[in-house]
Amino acid sequence: MEIRGEKEQFNKYAFACVLVASMISIIFGYDTGVMSGAMIFIKEEFGTSDTRQEILAGILNLCALVGSLAAGRACDYFGRRYTISVASFLFMTGSILMGYGPNYAILILGRCVAGIGVGFALMIAPVYSAEISSAKSRGFLASLPELGIGIGILLGYVANYFLGKLSLKVGWRLMLGIAAVPSLVLALGILVMPESPRWLVVQGHLGKAKKVLLKVSNTEQEAELRFKEIKIAAGIIDENCPEETVKLAQKNNGEGVWKELLVRPSSSVRWMLLAAVGVHFFQHATGIEAVMLYSPRIFKKAGVTSKDKLLLTTIGVGVTKIIFSTIATFFLDRVGRRRLLLSSTGGMVCSLAVLGFSLTMVQISQEKLLWALTLSIVATYSFVASFNMGLGPVTWVYSSEIFPLKLRAQGVSIGVAVNRVMNAAIAMSFISIYKTLTIGGAFFMFAGISILALFFFYFFLPETKGKALEEMEMVFSKNYSRNVSAETDLRQNV
After folding, report:
1. The pTM is what?
2. What residue ranges are annotated as transmembrane (predicted)?
């Protein structure tokens, strides 16, 4: 929330809250990264087929679909903080089962339990971060969960490299089971953090909400202004009327939300839902999961044959993701969501086209092509860099900030459900796709989808930088968009 005439300062307490909440994303990222290498050793011990490996990779995301839809209602009813705790316990249980892993069936069961936790985590971390943050720092703070995923993926890749040197029966089990420790720490640690002030207002706990806002705001004036706007958005006219706040809490425990979102949405809510679903759809339809989960296979197809070199090259993917995710966090509030998104997607189109070309040349050549191998690695890193400069973090920031207060949790849960469906679709079909289209053809396909994504983002996603959460309905109104376009044209003519 911007206080005119005052310079926005960075609130360390809000940063600490978001940092703790982002730990759930680190744990999820670790699971994604470590599985890419663990599958090599699981296949070696159990002799799993390509189809079974696709199921093992993708089943987590199908279960996350269930988790994300359940999390929307849960975090409206129990609160954002307790929902993070539930996600952590689910992760812990899933990690223990996978670390035990005496056979393929138990591995799948563990992946399913962890998957439900993923659904909870991906929905709640960005929502909590967005609701704690002020308008001027929301892009930075709400993108930290995405950065956390990148850190987790890199830790997973590093664990693959070092734990892969242990015996076959111990190595991959330790890779998967070790995530239970930080999950337990987070499940208990999150309980000392404050609840979202917006959820507290919706529940009628105005005094508690005011105390939290005083901590996460830089001045008392800023806290008062944020408190006032949240109350207006929640529909509280007289905070001294206990009956009104009780009725409000009963009304906003998820009642009537699905009707307002899907059955009879207003034109602005319909646009928000289209934007959220679209950005989540394209985040994975453009192929990032194929690279993050199957990078050892991609590099092997490009010509890297040694197991150690495969895992080392994969670590480079994780390092690239963290570097550019970190850079993006500082640009979201300066450059804006829309500009980062468009430039990021343009870079992805180019990188995917080059990757498709280089892998095709490797495949049709009768001898080893060092230049094509090098180009494949560079194009893969370039794709990961482009994705994490825009589409990666913007997806979570954008979808968590655009919905009205009452619809936010359920609206984000729909977006996350679409995200997990697409993630599962790519994870469970990539091997089959590249066997049908060739490995190069698969990435040419992703380049084509990225072009469609570029057009969608250009026409359907307005800029939200610097806008308060309570202003989003105005941003997504047709009159506002016309006024913004007219002002832009006027500046260009002048």
Report:
1. 0.79
2. 12-30, 55-75, 82-100, 106-128, 140-162, 174-193, 271-295, 310-333, 340-364, 370-391, 412-433, 439-461
